[in-house]
Specification:
The complex is a heterodimer.
Chain A: E1 3-14, E2 17-28, E3 32-36, H1 43-51, E4 58-63, E5 66-67, E6 78-81, H2 93-98, H3 108-121, H4 137-149, E7 155-159, H5 167-184, E8 187-192, H6 195-201, E9 204-209, E10 212-217, H7 219-224, H8 229-234, E11 239-248, E12 251-256, E13 260-263, E14 276-282, E15 287-290, E16 300-310, E17 314-321, E18 328-333, E19 346-351, E20 357-360
Helix pairs in contact in A: 3-4
Chain B: H1 2-33, H2 50-55, H3 59-92, H4 98-106, H5 113-126, H6 133-157, H7 161-169, H8 174-203, H9 206-211, H10 218-225, H11 232-263
The structure holds adenosine-5'-triphosphate and magnesium ion.
């Protein structure tokens, strides 16, 4: 894969504050790439460094093979959709979309066609003459998209474009944005702090904490094989259980407080397995209840329901395993004919050893 | 509660007295401007527009009006330009001692004008600058600029910084972004600033009195006329015209400012009215 965008060793300081720590990143052509992380981790700073609004204090940004050092934002093949959308309030919708085209030396007819086409593409056909300040949030967002896409940039940068929308609108736009990206084939880099949004929309995701990238992977890869406890906890839900890794005659074995033991495969840990104290990660859906009358599962433990949240299609249980203080969370699909347990009921918990993730160190979980 | 209500009542009385005190003399102006007598006293003797007619054939008055207009226009332009630079710097850039510097710029707003006038007179005499319309303009720019900054600061501050970045991102140069996006959006503020500075300069007396040379401004000319009691009703007539014009200009300035706020769909904050 020849990377369309390549950052290597990128550093950024705001005074003494280290905002970007040694960022290495390669993003391919036509990729939908997300930067995901908690508030203040440096996502916007990284996006602005690619756009040309922040000068790096070290390392480099290459776009399409060209070093971007010293290239100002108005000469980079990138366009940005700002978090506030930055729609020019004194111009009409069409004038907003045409803003970047004026420098292209197009004749009036071609320009009008392009503007019309771009508005059509984002579902705002016929809105050209509207005053921009009279639009709704979702409409502004579409105008911002059209205004950037009409220039056919190599890369479209989106800084939390959906965070200002209400939930319903956001879910609708997630789908639309994804379809739009497939349709135009332009590389999208999306900044978000919403893990669900990143999972739904992206081809690949970079997870950032404290100015550094912790892991870059596909949504499935991130969810199934988080490289650290931080990533595991940030993306989806994860139980952390303490125990030991033992080396036996047939390879490594996990010994987990409250659950029991199970063999481990090498790919269940981001780092090479070693014997010693360890923290084990497990998703709620990898644990399940075994109901009365069902056969004993291969790996089964006993406990008691400490809390319960009923969602209609699913029930989330907090189960206190025998001998373990911290309860584990498990999720059950509510099948017809299966009971929903109540708080205080005894529970048999089956678990899938292949779903275990090993994190080195005992931790405090 | 009674205490609070009593307090509110006291404030209301105070406000009414204050307004009477402030505006009663101004109300007297048009009354005597239309009074058919050279003596400024009650009872009124009859209605006349004679004093307004007399205004038309006083050449010295006309030249004073022209001098004042010239000074006011140039003052408005210069102080608004300075105001734009300062407001933009204050909202857009970070620099050391920013608060201190902005404070110093705003000080003429609170300095007694007579102090400003005398200090400027001393300075101009020291550097050998002859008193003329130019020296009045310099003095007026000094006292108008803080007003312009106050108005323009509001306009610049209500702008989203990413508007300018978006323009640059779409291919504009820094100047292009300023001209095509920032300037149109702050234009109502600029117009309001021009009008306010114009009005202040037009009405200003103390600085003009100290710093104008052989060409008096209108207020200075009026002051000179007060020595001739029989000319008093004419002065009243002229004063009436000036008050009406000032009020119109201030209303116009505020209207421009509000229209600007409405046009951007923003909420109102700041402004003088
Ligand atoms: N111009 C600046 N001057 C000083 N510090 C800054 C500047 N811009 C950002 N920072 C700091 O850098 C850190 C990263 O900021 P950034 O905006 O990149 O975070 P983010 O990941 O986008 O967060 P959010 O999700 O809240 O938008 C923050 O701690 C922020 O305070
Ligand atoms: Mg951000």
């Amino acid at each position: 894969m020849s990377a369309l965008i390549a950052l290597s060793g990128a550093q950024k300081y705001f005074g003494a504050y280290h905002a970007l720590r040694d960022i290495d990143l390669e993003i391919g052509e036509g990729e939908f790439f997300s930067l995901l992380g908690p508030s203040g981790c440096g996502k916007t700073t990284l996006l602005r460094a690619i756009a040309g609004f922040e000068a790096l204090d070290g390392g480099s940004v290459h776009i399409d093979g060209h070093d971007m050092a010293g290239v100002p934002a108005n000469r980079r093949p990138t366009n940005m959709v700002f978090q506030s959308y930055a729609i020019f309030p004194h111009l009409s919708v069409a004038e907003n979309v045409a803003f970047g085209l004026r420098k292209r030396g197009l004749d009036a007819k071609t320009q009008a066609e392009k503007v019309g086409g771009a508005l059509e593409m984002v579902g705002l056909g016929g809105y050209g003459a509207r005053a921009a300040h009279a639009l709704s949030g979702g409409q502004r967002q579409r105008v911002a998209l059209a205004r950037a896409l009409v220039l056919e940039p190599k890369v479209l940068l989106l800084d939390e474009p959906l965070s200002a929308l209400d939930r319903k609108m956001r879910e609708q736009m997630q789908g639309e944005l994804r379809r739009l990206q497939r349709h135009v084939g332009i590389t999208f880099i999306l900044v978000t702090h919403d893990q669900e949004e990143a999972l739904i929309m992206s081809d690949r995701i970079a997870v950032m904490f404290d100015g550094g990238i912790t892991q870059i992977d596909s949504p499935e890869g991130l969810y199934r094989r988080p490289a650290s406890r931080e990533v595991g906890a940030f993306i989806g839900q994860m139980n952390f259980l303490s125990g030991q890794v033992r080396s036996g005659s047939e390879g490594f074995v996990a010994q987990i407080h409250g659950l029991g033991h199970a063999p481990l495969a090498a790919d269940q840990s981001a780092e090479p397995l070693v014997a010693g104290q360890a923290t084990f990660g497990m998703r709620p859906e990898s644990l399940s209840l075994v109901f009365d009358g069902q056969a004993r599962a291969a790996s089964e433990a006993a406990g008691r329901v400490a809390d319960r949240a009923y969602y209609g299609d699913m029930t989330y249980y907090e189960v206190a395993l025998d001998g373990v203080a911290e309860p584990v969370t498990l999720s059950m699909k509510n099948m017809v004919g299966q009971p929903v347990l109540s708080v205080g009921d005894a529970a048999r918990v089956a678990w899938d050893p292949r779903a275990l993730i090993v994190f080195s160190g005992a931790g405090d979980a | 509660m009674a205490g609070v209500r009593g307090q509110g009542h006291g404030l209301r009385v105070y406000a009414v007295l204050y307004l009477v005190f402030l505006y009663a003399p101004i109300v007297l102006l048009p009354i005597f401007a239309f009074n058919d007598s050279t003596i400024i006293a009650f009872p009124l003797s009859g209605f006349t527009t004679q004093w307004f007619v007399e205004l038309a054939d006083v050449p010295a008055l006309h030249s004073a009006v022209l001098t004042s207009l010239k000074i006011a226009v140039i003052t408005a332009l210069i102080s608004t330009l300075l105001g734009i630079c300062a407001a933009r710097a204050a909202t857009r850039y970070r620099f050391p001692a920013k608060a201190g510097i902005m404070g110093v710029i705003m000080v003429p707003l609170v300095l007694p004008e007579i102090i400003v006038a005398v200090s400027l007179l001393v300075v101009f005499l020291q550097i050998g600058l002859e008193l003329s319309s130019l020296t009045v303009i310099l003095g007026h720019v000094l006292i108008c600029t803080p007003f312009c900054i106050a108005i323009l600061n509001g306009s610049f501050q209500s702008l989203d910084v990413s508007l300018e970045e978006a323009a640059v991102d779409l291919g504009e140069s820094g100047w292009g972004a300023f001209r095509l996006v920032i300037l149109p959006l702050v234009m109502p503020g600029i117009v309001a600033s021009l009008l306010i500075a114009f009005t202040i300069s037009m009405d200003e007396f103390i600085i003009a009195f100290f710093l104008s040379g052989s060409d008096p401004t209108l207020p200075v000319y009026l002051w000179g006329q007060l020595r001739f009691p029989q000319r008093l009703p004419v002065v009243m007539a002229l004063g009436t015209i000036l008050v009406v014009a000032s009020i119109l200009i201030i209303i116009l300035a505020e209207w421009f400012r509000r229209r600007g706020v409405a046009k951007r769909g923003g909420s109102d904050s700041g402004g003088f009215l």
